[in-house]
Amino acid sequence: MKCWLNSVEVIKKDPARTNGIIHLVFLGPGDSFGERALLSNTDVRSASVVISSAPTELVFINRVVFTELLKESHDSSNSNTLEITKRFRSNKDIVRNIFMRSSAQRSEKDLKFAVEYLKSVKFFSRFSFEVRKQLCKVMRLISAVTNTVLFAEGQVGRHFYIIFTGCVDVSVRAKNRFEETKESVVSRLGEGEYFGELALSQADGVRRATVVCTEFCELLILGRDEYEPLIQKYQNEYHAQYAQMLRKNPYFIGSEWDDNTIEGMCSVMTEKYIPYKGEVCKQGSRASELFIVTRGECRIIHDGKNPITNARQTYDLGRYGPNSVLGCAE
Questions:
Q1: What region holds the Cyclic nucleotide-binding domain (predicted)?
Q2: Are 23 and 11 in contact (CB under 8 A)?
Q3: Pairing relationship of beta strands 149-151 and 194-195 according to DSSP bridges
């Protein structure tokens, strides 16, 4: 079915709750639901209950017509069928519902949906299907409101996080030129990005940064017991690469750049892909991030004035390749 006007609410029965239900999601105009039952071999809807939260108009398609459309699509073009299937698999509401269930309630079909989501997260793209499948069995979904402190610098780390929806700020404490301890935001992470892994790679690892939700967030979390056997080996390799890169950079050589400081930087560093001719930072904007080029090349330009004619002029200040440091965190 497809919602045409107003909205509907998706709920799930849970006898353990006081009111007996769990509110899963609100669907608005243009959203669709009910396709999973039509794709299965059973007529029973077991995932959730859908109720109208206001007078609502819906357009719908029955099982017979739906099956015929898929059959015709398959007969005419296999690629069209793959596109339809891919659209269903990538539906965020379905993935959300899967991770809200207990591990024992997640079927093989559910895990395939979830694996497709993890495949889109850069950190997990390097893992095999089986590793991602094992992760989908044990990860769970939590939510946090704006300004929630997920963990603070100095606390013992117990979970690894992937942002399902929302955005968080990563901040660290440091002394300024006046020897005053200030907390500065060093990174802002959004949907599909991850954090919290460094503390889990050590026996009694402590958090090297504070993470705060800047808006309502949904997060996939993985406990230390599940993290260590599945991910630690891969993550240690990546942190070793980051640390090696920093130690070879002249910018980070000196007594103030000890192993703890380098490891702390590795814990908050995130990879960002900038497309060709994409803008890394803009002249006149607030300097809040430091960039290290790992692959490719960046060109720095400056908009100024010709000293003779006073006309606007763009100056090419140079090109910078791998291991170059750009920007300055304030």
A1: 7-87, 123-248, 253-330
A2: yes
A3: unpaired
The helix/strand/coil state of 307 is coil
Average pLDDT of the chain, as a whole number? 76
Does residue 15 share a domain with residue 135?
A: no
Name residue 225's amino acid.
D
Running DSSP on this structure, what letter comes out for residue 32? Answer: B
Mean pLDDT of 216-239: 76
In this predicted structure, what is the pLDDT of residue 149? 93
Residue with the two structure tokens 């993470």: 211
Amino acid of residue 140: R
274 strand-pairing partners: none
Closest among 49, 141, 48, 159 to 102, alpha carbons compared: 141
180, 199, 226 — which closes off a domain? Answer: 226
Pairing of strands 298-305, 159-165: unpaired
Count of structural domains, the chain: 2
Q: How confident is the model at residue 19 (pLDDT cuts 50, 70, 90)?
A: low
Coil, helix or strand for 156? strand
Clarify whether residues 35 and 129 are in a common domain: no
Q: Which residue has the higher pLDDT, 255 or 288?
A: 255
3 state DSSP class of 113? helix
> Are residues 94 and 217 part of one domain?
yes
